[in-house]
Amino acid sequence: MKKSIAISLVVLAAVSAAAGCCPCRFSARYAKPLEGTVWHLQQLRGNDVSFADSLFNVTFGSDGRLSGIGACNRFTAEWSATDKRALSVGTIASTRMYCPNADSEQTMFSELDAATHYEIDADMLLLLNNGEIRAIFKAQDNGDDQPSKKSRRRSK
Asked: Does residue 60 sit in the same domain as residue 113?
């Protein structure tokens, strides 16, 4: 009995691992690219947040610069990432206007700065700090329901 349970667990783990890396998964086919997508903050340090779509956004540029807007301040920084999704964000420079959500803005800046890795699942960007999810962003809808160019290349 114990042997059949162990075999079942090994088979289940193998199937899960194969399904997890399958390029045919829905989320992989519809994954938004990190670069060039406008990411809107949805969750910060485990707490759901609700801000106007024009606020709390970040865009990772192909030139190695990220930019965005917090509660009311525009910001920019250098960034880099590896093929294994390690992420490094440099010192964030921002304007200094007074904002009603200034604490949330500073928290978002801190989490961007402290991010060590990222994951993308369909239209969601997860920023991680040593394996712990610290911020979740959603790709702003641009009306494009087609798979990204990157995922189209993989599926051919």
From this structure: yes
